[in-house]
Automatic annotation (TrEMBL), chain A:
Assembly with partners or alone: NDH-1 is composed of 14 different subunits. Subunits NuoA, H, J, K, L, M, N constitute the membrane sector of the complex.
Protein known as: NADH-quinone oxidoreductase subunit H
UniProt organism field: Sphaerisporangium melleum
Superkingdom in the source lineage: Bacteria
Annotated EC: 7.1.1.-
TrEMBL record, chain B:
The protein, known as: NADH-quinone oxidoreductase subunit
Catalytic reaction list: a quinone + NADH + 5 H(+)(in) = a quinol + NAD(+) + 4 H(+)(out)
Keyword Oxidoreductase recorded: no
GO cellular component terms attached to this protein's record: NADH dehydrogenase complex; plasma membrane
GO molecular function annotation: NADH dehydrogenase (ubiquinone) activity; quinone binding
Keyword hit for Signal: no
Topology class, membrane: Multi-pass membrane protein
Transmembrane residue ranges: 20-43, 78-99, 111-130
Compartment list: Cell membrane; Membrane
Keywords of the record: Membrane, NAD, Quinone, Transmembrane, Transmembrane helix, Transport
Pfam families found in the cross-reference section: Oxidored_q4
Function according to Swiss-Prot or TrEMBL: NDH-1 shuttles electrons from NADH, via FMN and iron-sulfur (Fe-S) centers, to quinones in the respiratory chain.
Amino acid sequence: MAEVLDVALRLAVIVIAFLTLPLIVGQTEHKAMAHMQSRLGPMYAGGFHGWAQLIADGVKFVQKEDIIPAAADRRVFALAPAVALVPYLVVMAVIPVGPGLVGADLDAGLFFALAVLGVGVLGSIMAGWSSANKYSVLGGMRSAAQLMAYELPLVLAASSVAMAAGTLSLPGIASAWQWWWLPWQAIGAVVFFVAGLAELRRPPFDMPIADSEIIMGPMTEYTGIRFALFLLSEYVGIVVLSALTTVLFLGGWQGPLLPGPVWTLLKVFALAFVVIWVRVSFPRLRADQLQKLAWVGLVPLALLQLALTGVVKVLLAA
Amino acid sequence: MGGHGSREPETGWSTVNEYFASYAVVAALLAAGVAVFAGALLASRLLRPDRPTPEKLTTYECGVDPVGEGWAQSQIRYYVYTYLYVVFAVDAVFLFPWATVFAAPGFGMTTLVEMFVFLAFIGLGILYAWRKRVLTWT
């Protein structure tokens, strides 16, 4: 009985984190971006610096009419937001926030996380194709191309950490981490974070969405609650990417003085801030630049990191 | 003495049970995710209006009536490196089990040489694709 309660509590915490952390990141984005551009951002909803803006947005979205175009493939169209959103929640099950504080400590946790993350991108391809809209189809194709280019460096960089730690379990990797892994795995960390950003289709890798050329890409025909769920999945994606980078490359809960979960959250929010900062600072990459960065830039760098990890690890063992 | 023999499969089964128990948590979370999605749609259904008109349901094309079908045939230039991706991704999958054991005592240099053979294959593949101008987009 105590065991069941324990699992239920963990699940409840994960679902609450899944529903609140993205809103905090989203609100931070509203405000940080506004101040970087000499604006104020939301100021009215909730009174204090517009803290309730996203809640107000949610209330608005939930009341909007649900429109599925007559030409669309209804079932796929209706299901696509779930395919985009739910995988991120499932990934959160294997991300540890402190020693022993994890939903499920899977032996193949890293492999599981990468596999399930790949499913999320299918949602945007489904949305793109099922909308029967030219902009959506273009956006879906771009999503597919982008996913294919950036999945490889992501996987290679992640496997470098698995080599260093000698395990695929995420808590195992975080507890094996030592401070000198920072310079040792620095290339891998950058490759992982950049490739992850591209998989999320966040600026500057937002060519599939590119509002100035293809309206909203795969989400052009979406409105109301389904559109809101797509937006939620984008911000959950930021949280998940930041958390995975924290666990793999920044030592997860490790840090002096403060308790473990606090360190995890601090690192996650610091990385989420970097995601926002990058959005404000860089212009969108063109299709050829995007592919070139992945195949000519990130993949060779990830291979270099693999070689470096292997050599150092074997020399240390010898 | 006989007790030892009967205990062995027991430990084996408890490992299997633990393995599935850890995935049961994942399955429960998947169910929770589906419930969140269904709940959001249900809440929306209770609150939203539903007054479809033919104009509302037309495909969006910047305000003009849509021209032709949305599922337009388009030339996909990415197929070559789709192959490239499949080959590399399959390679990369084998990296993971290897990564957990490669530094185990007794392997050392052998696995390191193996790794460089692996890297050389991938590197050569990319170099080949590059020479064949697969990696240029203009």
